[in-house]
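Checklist before submission:
- one chain only
- standard amino acids only
- sequence pasted in full

Submission:
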Amino acid sequence: MKVLLLEDDEDVADTVSSVLTSFFPTVDIVHISDGAEFRKGAWRAGGWDLVVMDLMMPGVTGFEACEAIRANRLTSKVPVLALTGYDTLQNEERIKAAGASGYMAKPFEVPQLLVELKRLLGNAHGL
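Returned file contents:
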């Protein structure tokens, strides 16, 4: 399984990575922590099973990143889980309109993350 993780907070990135590797020991996680790296475009090649993204990162918003992911034919169908420390109804509606498949406020509990991962990946990956 291949996961694109767009997150500038190292603690959150470590938590998400730990949860994923506990269920998928061979998971390949590509971590991008800022907009400059995202704009280089390596993510465009596709092959992702899941994208987990922060809404507010240096140099790119999750809204922009989600729209770019949805506009690319190789990534347009990949489930996208948006994470945010700015939990508002407006942000939730806006990221879902941009194409996110799921939304979670930070800080989150690991069981809550597992529920979302199961919902987004369960059928295809045996969760």
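Reviewer check: The two ends are 13 Å apart (CA to CA).
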